[in-house]
Design brief:
The complex is a heterodimer. By secondary structure, chain A is α+β, with helices and mostly antiparallel strands. In chain A, 23% of the residues lie in helices and 35% in strands. In chain A, the strands form four sheets. A six-stranded mixed β-sheet of chain A has the order 7-8-9-3-10-11, sandwiched between helices. A five-stranded antiparallel β-sheet of chain A has the order 2-1-4-5-6, with helices on one face. In chain A, strands 12-13-14-21-15 form a five-stranded mixed β-barrel. In chain A, a hairpin with a 2-residue loop joins strand 10 and strand 11. Chain A starts with a strand and ends with a strand. Chain B is globular, with a radius of gyration of 25 Å. In chain B, helix 17 runs antiparallel to helix 22 and helix 19 crosses helix 20. Helix content of chain B is 73%, strand content 0%. Chain B folds into two domains: 253 residues, MetI-like (MetI-like fold, Orthogonal Bundle), CATH 1.10.3720.10; 238 residues, MetI-like fold. Classes of the chains: A alpha+beta, B mainly alpha. Chains A and B meet through strand 6 and helix 4 of A and helix 21 and helix 22 of B.
């Protein structure tokens, strides 16, 4: 439904500077919930706005529903008002001088040939019912709460039954509890409507819980595109590993590689000892790598317990109580590690013996 | 087509050459309007500079290339011009000091203390903004002129003096009157400043153990200083270019400022108008004017750094005045008397006397409405008709153009679009009279056959539109910045073209600011004198010009009477203005006078 090929966009005329979006390609199928995830300034919103037609890229092609809407080579630039897309903005962009009804009816009034008043009314009411705002149609739009305005924006985006839906950090202005509820609702609704959805966010939890596919972006580049499970469990590089979840990163060098076929493990030499790690891409001895282990994957051993491999001794630096879990900062040698444990019986200064389970340690090239 | 020639993608600006998609016309129209207006503005300045290189009038008429620097040599070597320049600078500096003396404390009282009667204060200040400068000037002539000044006579009799103690027709006197007239502007600008300053900065100072005075000295004043400087420069630009007050007060005593002397060069009774000389003098002033506005813009940027933009409902800490209330209102009453009440009373007094007399029992007995009856009603009817045309059309055209300018500068993606903002600001930077003269010369020499606007009201209209464009674009820029861009983008996404975005989203959202700006420009057009006198002819005189004409031929009584009528006609407009501005609740910091 949405296909982007080799898209590049520079802000400003100087093409020797790094672009905001760099040679990006992706494809979103019908009914797929596709998320662009990355820190601010990574180019995710720019990509989404290019699909909408609100930004004009310099290079590449964009197809919506197999129709070419932008191409630099073929000089095709379908204007934004002719693209028939639904979009929810970060600020909701609910028009404050209109009622709820008029906000939702607005896209329908631009339809040609013109729709009858009754048809408009029916479709607006359906859209409002879909987002559970029926009964609010005569309210001035500013008299809605944040969550309701968000639903209103969604109803307006969906009222024309667009083939694709673009969501630009739609939940970022809601408070935490409401955001969780909307996450569930939004995903259910989109699955029911079977519409191709491009979702942009910098919140990893939103991305992990809602998406079919996540693409992590940084500095204009698409770094990894996979399912939420894969992107969490098998990050392809240290940026993705660090951006999704809280990971410990330890610099090191490949000391030896398991010679057995299909073993896919290696020993990484670091300043705090040697550790056996998995790899995703084949590595050779002597390669500089980063060893990655998530804070919840580090295990605590009893003081007298010891393991053959991947053990380390440290000192507790500080303890944070996070409600369901305790987070410790532990110094091992010259490195500070963040680990999550269920028991809070350690105090700053206590000695702690750690284990980095082999299957949880990843060796990633730098 | 080469890529650089293509209009870059505005929202909805993008299609070429395929019939499947609708074309977005409005952006093209707006770009066209903006280019046309910018060409005219720039053209007038260039016209003026071009003229300045001609010595002989005939050469201008023949379009010969007989250039010379002779005008510049005589402008720059004439010691009289140097005196006028120094006088004008002094005049403007005095005006700024007086305006600041009254305006800044009044603004502080209104925004940062618990003084009662703030609504009244704002009302009086708004009236002060709208009362024509020549009204106040005339009033002060009746009070403090050497010959007939009421106060001078009173003091002479009281102390048995042989000479009048005051003379209004000096640079000091005129500067003070200009300052009193500019005080409301300073008030409005600094009040916005006090209002938008983050109060937590002051609270942090109190929390760090500083008292009120220390906090004011160490925190409030340094924070507010760039804003006060910006207001001072703004007032200075207006004072430097002022025409009406120096003309009304100074001419009789041969005290000239820059604008009045320029006027005389093009409108002399005794000699042929020396256009080339006037053009050279104007051209010499342009760099100074641009320098001043550059300075002003820089100061404004410093102000923006400390401003609270969120507009969240915070309440600044109000200082309790206690008994100081009496002192505060005493100060304000002194200002109101000097700025409005006393000069207006003197005007009314003069308007009721067929020849000017000092207040006495005998004079009271001779009060009559003779002046009102003897007014040249035919002239006034023409003036009223022309003024009405200007008051309706000037703000309307300015608003349409300003919307186009602001949209192109803030919303389009045309390359180098910021330059248009500079063009729109030029008319504020350069004294109005320079534009008036540029327009006069253009209509006389370039367009005389093709576009016969010379001596018609349309020429004045063009002039008014050009000089108000800077104010209109400032207002529209300010309002458009506050409209979240996504509101428009949502409209494009919903299938609207730019015209639809304007009709359904932008104009409804901008309408309070647009109404406010319209009315303000209408009121300024009503009181405008400078451009009208330079550009106007017998057929195109405005009400202000009729007043000015009566005054210059010595009709003190009749001109006073007409002024009283002019001010009274302002009342309903003022009421409307007050109503709309309260409703609009727009930021009132960008007033041009």
């Amino acid at each position: 439904m949405i296909r982007i090929e080799n898209l590049s966009l520079w802000y400003g005329a100087d093409r020797s500077l790094p672009p905001a979006v760099n040679n990006l390609s992706l494809e979103i199928k019908k009914g797929e919930f596709y998320t662009l995830l990355g820190p601010s300034g990574c180019g995710k919103t720019t990509t989404l706005r290019s699909v909408a037609g609100l930004e004009e890229p310099q290079l590449g092609e964009i197809y919506i529903d197999d129709e070419l809407v932008f191409s630099d080579k073929k000089q095709v630039r379908v204007p934004v008002y002719d693209r028939n897309i639904g979009m929810v903005f970060q600020s909701y962009a609910v028009w404050p001088h209109m009622t709820v009804f008029n906000n939702v009816a607005y896209p329908l009034k631009n339809e040609r040939p013109r729709l009858s008043q009754n048809a408009i009314r029916d479709r607006v009411m359906n859209a409002l019912a879909l987002v559970k705002l029926d009964g609010f149609e005569n309210r001035p739009a500013p008299n809605l709460s944040g969550g309701q305005q968000q639903r209103l924006a969604l109803a307006r985006a969906l009222v024309r039954e667009p083939k694709i839906l673009l969501l630009d950090e739609p939940l970022s202005n809601l408070d935490a509890k409401l955001r969780e509820e909307m996450c569930v609702e939004l995903r259910e609704m989109i699955k029911r409507l079977d519409v191709a959805t491009l979702y942009v966010t910098h919140e990893q939890m939103e991305a992990l819980s809602m998406s079919d596919t996540i693409a992590v972006m940084n500095q204009g580049d698409l770094l990894q595109e996979s399912s939420p499970l894969e992107i969490y469990g098998a990050p392809r590089n240290s940026f993705v590993a660090n951006f999704i979840g809280k990971s410990n990163m330890i610099a090191g060098k490949v000391a030896s590689v398991d010679p057995a076929a299909g073993a896919k493990t290696c020993v990484v030499e670091t300043s705090i000892g040697n550790f056996t790690c998995r790899w995703l891409d084949a590595l050779e001895v002597g390669r500089d790598v980063t060893m990655v282990i998530r804070s919840e994957d580090v295990a605590k051993l009893k003081p007298d317990e010891s393991v053959n491999v991947n053990g380390a001794d440290g000192t507790v630096g500080s303890v944070l109580f996070l409600g369901d879990i305790f987070e410790y900062w532990v110094s091992v040698g010259d490195i500070d590690l963040r680990i999550k444990l269920e028991d809070g019986d350690l105090s700053p200064g206590d000695a702690i013996r750690l284990n980095f389970p082999e299957e949880r340690c990843l060796a990633l090239t730098r | 087509m080469a890529r650089s020639l293509r209009l870059p993608a505005l929202p909805g600006f993008g299609v070429r050459g395929d019939r499947k998609h609708r074309v977005d016309m409005l952006p093209r129209v707006m770009v066209g309007l903006v280019c046309a207006a910018s060409t005219i503005i720039l053209g007038l300045v260039l016209m003026m500079i071009w003229m300045s290189f001609y010595k002989e009038l005939d050469d201008i008429l023949d379009f010969s290339f007989n250039f010379s620097l002779v005008n510049y040599v005589s402008v720059l070597t004439d010691p009289f011009n140097l005196r006028v320049l120094i006088d004008t600078l002094l005049f403007a500096i005095i005006a700024v000091l007086v305006a600041g003396f009254f305006g800044v404390p009044a603004a502080w009282l209104a925004e940062r203390t618990d003084m009662p009667g703030k609504t009244a204060l704002f009302t009086f200040m708004t009236i002060g903004l709208l009362i024509p400068g020549f009204t106040v000037a005339m009033g002060w002539v009746f009070l403090l002129s050497e010959r007939i000044g009421i106060i001078n006579h009173f003091l002479k009799n009281l102390f048995g003096l042989s000479e009048a103690p005051f003379n209004i027709a000096t640079i000091l006197g005129m500067g003070c009157v200009e300052g009193v007239a500019l005080a409301p502007l300073t008030f409005v600008m600094t009040a916005a400043l006090f209002r938008s300053m983050d109060p937590s900065l002051e609270e942090a100072s109190y929390a760090s153990g500083s008292n009120v005075l220390q906090t004011f000295r160490r925190v409030t004043l340094p924070l507010i200083w760039p804003g006060i400087m910006a207001a001072a420069i703004y007032a200075f630009i207006i004072g430097f270019a002022a025409f009406d007050i120096p003309a009304i007060i100074g001419w009789s005593n041969r005290i000239y400022t820059f604008s009045t002397i320029l006027y005389i060069f093009v409108n002399s009774d005794s000699e042929l108008p020396n256009y080339g000389y006037a053009a050279a003098m104007g051209a010499v002033m342009i760099p100074l004017a641009i320098l001043l506005s550059w300075w002003y813009t820089r100061m404004q940027r410093n102000v923006a750094r400390y401003q609270v933009i969120t507009g969240k409902g915070y309440r600044p800490r109000l200082i309790k005045l206690g008994r100081g209330v009496y002192l505060a209102w005493g100060f304000l009453v002194v200002y109101l008397c000097l700025g409005q009440v006393v000069p207006m009373a003197a005007l009314v007094w003069s308007s009721l006397l067929s020849f000017f007399q000092q207040p006495s029992l005998r004079a009271v007995k001779s009060l009559s409405l003779r002046n009102y009856e003897e007014l040249p009603w035919e002239l006034i009817a023409t003036g009223a008709k022309n003024t009405a045309i200007l008051v309706v059309l000037a703000p309307t055209i300015v608003l349409v153009l300003s919307l186009a300018f602001s949209w192109v500068v803030l919303r389009s993606r045309i390359r180098h679009r910021a330059i248009f903002d500079f063009f729109a600001f030029l008319p504020h930077a350069i004294p109005n009279i320079i534009f008036a003269i540029g327009l006069l010369l253009t209509s006389l020499f370039v367009f005389k056959d093709y576009l016969p606007v010379y001596g018609t009201i349309w020429l004045i209209l063009i002039g008014f539109v050009i000089v108000r464009l800077s104010y209109g674009t400032r207002m529209m820029n300010g309002a458009l910045i506050q409209v979240h861009r996504e509101l428009e983008e949502a409209s494009y996404i919903s299938g609207s073209r730019t015209w639809g975005v304007f009709r359904t989203v932008l104009i409804p959202l901008l309408s309070p600011a647009m109404m406010y700006a319209w009315l303000w420009i209408a009121l300024l057009s009503y009181r405008e004198l400078t451009m009208a006198t330079v550009l106007g002819g017998p057929e195109s005189s405005t009400l202000s010009m009729v007043v000015f004409g009566l005054w210059t031929v010595g009709g003190m009584g009749t001109s006073s009477a007409l002024t009283v009528i002019v001010v009274l006609c302002l009342a309903p407009l003022l009421a409307l203005y007050w109503y709309i501005s309260r409703k609009a609740n727009v930021i009132r910091e960008e007033h041009g006078a």
